[in-house]
């Protein structure tokens, strides 16, 4: 349920408390799934519809300011960028004649964006399920709800399933552990958690690498750090690599990916004396190393 504050915005209060809290949460990456982040940010904009504005122009300016603050909270999330822009552009282009009309258009835009994000993930997972044959051995990296959805699709539509999945730990936050815990609840899936550096050791046993994505900008895939070495090793082992995600994560222009460098305390607890600790959240993989990209709207093969 959305928490309503019901307070009128003044000139010095252009960012609402709810949106400010959402910005902080996104910036701290308390939520990892980009689709969850996009939905959370879209929902936060609803707070503006409960506030009073003297003119349509003031409402639209405030909508843009708050949306911009949400987008800046994590410049690495393409889906956050595209969904926020979609909401603001729809409301602005509707050219509402009253504040109430602008609020109604905002609510409708938010509902449509949330529905599109959730449906896109399901459609992409369903289409990607066709790339995983029963009896296959796959390797995955990081935690991806869309990859999980693809495996669920295989399970629901094949008998017997008999899948083998190698999942990396995705250090230093060990997001792969969440992945294997969920995979372990699926019937017919033999799950193995491996350290990141062991991916090359197990790749010759695999039929396919299957990962999610943060985004693809031009000819570069940005995803959880560790994806690039897996892609290069998979190419050397002649193992096809498929990336799955919503079409909104494929960006041609208007978005500059900014990597995030996380706290050194995630890597080691004791002080770093005489050396520095580097902890990038994402790496860049050239798309020519991929076999295919599967989205809710289609398949791109390389």
Brief overview, please?
The chain has helices spanning 17-27, 34-44, 56-73, 78-93, 99-128, 145-157, 175-183, 199-202, 227-236, and strands spanning 137-140, 163-168, 189-194, 208-211, 215-217, 220-224, 241-244, 250-251, 282-286, 292-294, 299-301. The chain has 302 residues and is an alpha/beta fold.
Description of the molecule:
The chain is of the alpha/beta class and 302 residues long. It has two domains: 17-122, Up-down Bundle (Four Helix Bundle (Hemerythrin (Met), subunit A)), CATH 1.20.120.420; 132-301, Translation initiation factor eif-2b, domain 2 (Rossmann fold). 40% of the residues lie in helices and 15% in strands. It is built from nine helices and eleven strands. The protein has helices spanning 17-27, 34-44, 56-73, 78-93, 99-128, 145-157, 175-183, 199-202, 227-236; strands spanning 137-140, 163-168, 189-194, 208-211, 215-217, 220-224, 241-244, 250-251, 282-286, 292-294, 299-301. A hairpin with a 4-residue loop joins strand 10 and strand 11. The model is unreliable at 1-12 (pLDDT under 50).
Secondary-structure blueprint:
Blueprint: H1 17-27, H2 34-44, H3 56-73, H4 78-93, H5 99-128, E1 137-140, H6 145-157, E2 163-168, H7 175-183, E3 189-194, H8 199-202, E4 208-211, E5 215-217, E6 220-224, H9 227-236, E7 241-244, E8 250-251, E9 282-286, E10 292-294, E11 299-301
Parallel strand pairs: 1-2, 1-4, 2-3, 4-7, 5-8, 7-10
Antiparallel strand pairs: 5-6, 6-9, 10-11
């Amino acid at each position: 349920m959305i928490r309503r504050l019901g307070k009128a915005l003044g000139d010095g209060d252009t960012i609402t408390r709810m949106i400010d809290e959402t910005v902080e949460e996104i910036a701290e990456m308390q939520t990892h799934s980009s689709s969850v982040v996009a939905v959370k940010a879209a929902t936060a904009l609803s707070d503006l519809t409960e506030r009073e504005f003297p003119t349509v122009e003031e409402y639209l300016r405030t909508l843009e300011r708050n949306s911009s603050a949400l987008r800046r909270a994590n410049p690495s999330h393409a889906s956050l960028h595209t969904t926020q822009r979609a909401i603001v552009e729809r409301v602005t282009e509707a050219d509402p004649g009253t504040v109430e009309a602008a609020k109604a258009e905002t609510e409708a835009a938010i509902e449509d964006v949330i529905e599109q994000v959730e449906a896109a993930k399901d459609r992409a997972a369903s289409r990607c399920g066709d790339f995983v044959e029963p009896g296959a051995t796959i390797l995955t990296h990081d935690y991806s709800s869309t990859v999980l959805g693809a495996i669920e699709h295989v399970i629901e539509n094949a008998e017997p399933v008999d899948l083998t999945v190698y999942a990396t730990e995705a250090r230093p936050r060990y997001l792969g552990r969440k992945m294997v815990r969920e995979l372990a609840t699926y019937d017919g899936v033999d799950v193995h958690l491996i350290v990141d550096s062991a991916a090359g050791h197990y790749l010759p046993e695999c039929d396919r690498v299957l990962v999610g994505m943060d985004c693809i900008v031009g000819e570069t895939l940005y995803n959880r750090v560790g994806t690039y070495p897996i892609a290069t090793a998979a190419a050397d082992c002649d193992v096809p690599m498929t990336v799955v995600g919503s079409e909104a994560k494929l960006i041609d222009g208007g978005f500059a990916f900014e990597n995030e460098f996380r706290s050194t305390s995630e890597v080691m607890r004791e002080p770093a004396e005489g050396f520095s600790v580097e902890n990038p959240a994402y790496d860049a993989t050239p798309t020519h190393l991929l076999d295919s990209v599967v989205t809710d709207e289609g398949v791109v093969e390389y």
